[in-house]
Amino acid sequence: MADKPREKGFETKAVEPEDIKGPVHALATPIFSNSTYRLESAAHGARLSSRADLEEGDSPWLYSRWGNPTTEIAARVLTKLEGGHESFVMSSGMAAVSTALLSHLQAGDHVIAPNQVYGGTHELFKTTLPSYGVEVSWVDGTQISQYRDAIRDNTRVIYGETPANPTMTICDLDGLGSISAETGITSMVDSTFGSPYNQLPISHGVNVVIHSATKYLGGHSDIIAGSVTVDNESSEKKVFQMLKLLGGVQSPFDAFLLTRGMKSLAVRMRQHNENAQAIAEYLAGHDKIQAVHYPGLENHPQHALATAQMRGYGGMLSFDVKGGVDAGKSVIENLKIINHAVSLGGVESLIVHAPSTTHTMVAREARLQAGITDGLIRFSVGIETLEDLIEDLDQALSGL
User: Fold this and answer.
1) What is the mean pLDDT of the segment spanning 236-260?
2) Strand-pair category, 86-90 with 226-230
3) Left, alpha or beta for 68 (phi > 0: left; psi -120 to 50: alpha)?
4) Residue 39's pLDDT is what?
């Protein structure tokens, strides 16, 4: 038997050109700003509208809410990186979360959600889904046994976020995948904090992977974007139909920037990983820091799990300063290089007080239950020179 051909490396998959269907062979992704496309015949239009098999020579494009050459290229690159069946790029991370969930749920269904989840996602589970007749059960996302115990006859989706925003807890990807394999329940994971470079949920049996592509996939704080990657044709059809109806499609220009961002994902993530690890260790040894949450630290409760399912521990961490909220605000407001701003995953370092920004919509009791203390600071570590970042933190902490 012939040796199996070696699979291309992650970096090569991210960089190699993706041609559109046609005679264009461009290294840079072309931007097709078309809203609509010329049809060859009524029959051609009917085939496209009904999603029937196309005939040889048919153009595959009908209307850019249904599909666009530039956005398709971004989706194809992401599918390769995730190892999935199909991907969809969308107008924001929340467009991706809501489209993925609404495409797999209807009135009378039940979904299991983790307490440790991004504030906007928490609000969707808490208010929007119940208003449409979907039941939601909350579990500790670090405990697969709680997911199993919460399953009902009408459970259709189990949802995870790993590493979780902003507590940095880790969800067991193999555990979620096993539940899906055993029960047929669709598993979904928000993998934004990890990025496809650091973790591949589909390889662990997870069915649907979600990203706020605004973050590491784009990587430069210059687009708003989201993505959904699925592992099977059934989910592909459901997500396409919901995306088409909700209309949260990505603009061609943002898709161009997203594709460009993914080309450098691997080199950026290596620097994010390296800087964050060093800063987590620095903060953990500082006498004015009460707690540091980073899966790369050996005292993280799920360090072993993170090591088993991640290539690197990521560029995100969170910490509490001794002295509570006021001390934390003092540190944030006295930083000179690290930027006080929401969002994450860009090349520049960003820091924010999580309870008053990213999770302000979550009730305090729910925040505390999820491990989001009143003074928790979320830090998106950029790719700046490490010594500069540590000096900046040191001078801000010295003022306490």
Assistant:
1) 97
2) antiparallel
3) beta
4) 92
Tell which residue, 315, 329, 306, 316, has the closest CA to residue 376.
329
In a domain, 356, yes or no: yes
- In which element (H, E) is residue 389 found? helix 386-397
What amino acid positions are annotated as catalytic residues? 65, 118, 190, 215
Q: Environment class of residue 46 by beta-carbon count within 10 Å: exposed (0-12), middle (13-18) or buried (19+)?
A: exposed
> Is residue 313 within 8 Å of residue 294, measured between CB atoms?
yes
In a domain, 8, yes or no: no
59 and 188 part of one domain? yes
- Predicted local confidence at residue 359, as pLDDT: 62
Of 217, 247, 263, which residue sits at a domain end? 263
DSSP run (H or E) holding 187: strand 186-190
CATH number of the domain where residue 309 is located: 3.90.1150.10
What 3-state class would DSSP assign to 88? Answer: strand
Q: What is the pTM of this model?
A: 0.93
DSSP 206-247: -SEEEE-TTTTTT-SS----EEEEESSHHHHHHHHHHHHHH-
- pLDDT tens by residue, 145-155: 999 999 999 99
